[in-house]
Amino acid sequence: MWAGRVLHAALSRAPRESRAQSALAQLRGILEEELESIRGAGTWKSERVITSRQGPHIHVDGAPGGIINFCANNYLGLSSHPEVIQAGLRTLKEFGAGLSSVRFICGTQSIHKDLEAKIARFHQREDAILYPSCFDANTGLFEALLTSEDAVLSDELNHASIIDGIRLCKAHKYRYRHLDMADLEAKLQEAQKHRLRLVATDGAFSMDGDIAPLQEICRLASQYGALVFVDESHATGFLGATGRGTDELLGVMDQVTIINSTLGKALGGASGGYTTGPGALVSLLRQRARPYLFSNSLPPAAVGCASKALDLLMESNAIVQSMAAKTLRLGHKPWVTSMSIRSGCDCSTVPQLPVTPSSCPQIPQSDGGCWLHHLRSQSPHLPCDAG
Ligand SMILES: Cc1ncc(COP(=O)(O)O)c(C=O)c1O
């Protein structure tokens, strides 16, 4: 009787197991084919393993000696700044490794509130809300803010996270040609029928270092009754006279309604993102933004690092000025002039170096004794030889 039941169970398991195995074999086949197509398209992304802290000089597995690192977004060198590290350690010790909770359940500490207030002060906005990343800030914003009655107008080269955020929302979508103000105006005219219009753009586009023409965007927005959203991930901390960003650089701080940015680049480089803008918008995001509501709080060490980075920038303008001076100096090096260092309008502060790894030159020993191993590569989804 018992043996019969075991035999029956084994027999009925056999076809199930073999179906599971064939599903797995099918999956492996599909994955291999997909991976091969990525290799074939020349868009395979391999990762170098850094064995030191992030910084201008780093050590990389398999590369003897140091190399000069141009591809991090560590614009101000704060990722390894001693005071930033100390602040991270202090908050780690005092507030622990993490909250094991989302913000609204039991994941808000005094340091989160302090950092949000500091971010709002830094950008001269009413309030700010933290996210685990700027990717999350971008995927949280549009869906929470815009309905099917509204419209969003987006630069075609906006960051992937803005594109994904817009995909998630029900608003009518208009994509205007990169930096093309005539096209934006045409789209704004088309979008007049909607309740709200939100123009969304990167402040500084990381791949080519383009700066969004915010004065013109704000002028058009005001003419057609639209709001302006800017992702300042590649501007916060260093663009503009005091590093407030593209809106400061172009004199439109009072005209940009919403800013999203990252703590994972110039502001210490740990991780985290935020939205800053009108108080009521921030309140709505705390109620509705899904990456805020359903993801763990920012770890205290990351909060401490970002908070110290902001302190350093608000106490003095020395770091911002030093970066601008270094960019100018670098631009005069003979081995750099063959690459384009983009200047942020009339002040040269964006060291964006769009070259492919295969075209990397070698830096002479006199310029630091390091090999320039890899500059910022082109957009990771484009083949190496694309445009
Ligand atoms: C323009 C822009 N927005 C958002 C992000 C995402 O930032 P985070 O790393 O904080 O998710 C990036 C990161 O590369 C970016 O370049």
UniProtKB/TrEMBL annotation:
<dbReference type="InterPro" id="IPR015422">
    <property type="entry name" value="PyrdxlP-dep_Trfase_small"/>
</dbReference>
<keyword id="KW-0808">Transferase</keyword>
<feature type="domain" description="Aminotransferase class I/classII large">
    <location>
        <begin position="67"/>
        <end position="323"/>
    </location>
</feature>
<protein>
    <submittedName>
        <fullName>2-amino-3-ketobutyrate coenzyme A ligase, mitochondrial isoform X2</fullName>
    </submittedName>
</protein>
<dbReference type="InterPro" id="IPR015424">
    <property type="entry name" value="PyrdxlP-dep_Trfase"/>
</dbReference>
<dbReference type="Pfam" id="PF00155">
    <property type="entry name" value="Aminotran_1_2"/>
</dbReference>
<dbReference type="InterPro" id="IPR001917">
    <property type="entry name" value="Aminotrans_II_pyridoxalP_BS"/>
</dbReference>
<dbReference type="GO" id="GO:0016874">
    <property type="term" value="F:ligase activity"/>
</dbReference>
<dbReference type="InterPro" id="IPR015421">
    <property type="entry name" value="PyrdxlP-dep_Trfase_major"/>
</dbReference>
<dbReference type="InterPro" id="IPR050087">
    <property type="entry name" value="AON_synthase_class-II"/>
</dbReference>
<comment type="similarity">
    <text>Belongs to the class-II pyridoxal-phosphate-dependent aminotransferase family.</text>
</comment>
<dbReference type="InterPro" id="IPR004839">
    <property type="entry name" value="Aminotransferase_I/II_large"/>
</dbReference>
<keyword id="KW-0436">Ligase</keyword>
<keyword id="KW-0663">Pyridoxal phosphate</keyword>
<keyword id="KW-0012">Acyltransferase</keyword>
<dbReference type="InterPro" id="IPR011282">
    <property type="entry name" value="2am3keto_CoA_ligase"/>
</dbReference>
